[in-house]
Amino acid sequence: PSVLAITPASSKKGSVVQITNLAGSNFISGARVNLTRTGYANVTATNVQVPTSSQITGSFNLVGVTPGIWNVLVINPDGKTGSLTNGFTVLPNLTASFYGVPGTTVSPYTVKFYDASEGDPISWSWNFGDGITNTTRNPSHTYSPGTYSVSLTVSDGVSSSSIGG
Known about the structure:
Layout: E1 2-7, E2 10-12, E3 16-25, E4 32-36, E5 43-44, E6 46-52, E7 55-61, E8 68-75, E9 81-91, E10 98-102, E11 109-115, E12 123-127, E13 133-134, E14 140-143, E15 151-155, E16 160-164
Parallel strand pairs: 2-9
Antiparallel strand pairs: 1-3, 3-7, 4-5, 4-8, 6-7, 8-9, 10-11, 11-14, 12-13, 12-15, 15-16
């Protein structure tokens, strides 16, 4: 078999992704499909169907799978194989994280905040604990003397994650 493309070509760790079109040629009914990566256990597709010799469908359970770039391997019942090198990406889960760096040591105190979130957020919502909010990725904020609880919520357009508060 020859493997040309996979749709979708990525999904988040912890999800079950439906492969709607593994495209190629010479696929045989009963074929198996794996995600492979050196040093990691294979991820075997379930519910594999071969509607035509040029298409395979199925699903991958990505719970516990290490994020990164994986190869797509098709094994026909006759033992012949085909692969799509670096064909599928397991994306990290969205996890909010940040840190702050003091910019001044006398009142009023300025702190530069840095987003350190995982999972490619596209929006940020900061609450500085004093009634002021901000939506930039790495904002600065000036405080009067006191104790404040800062929170950050990030979104990737599908899910969100929060920390602090």
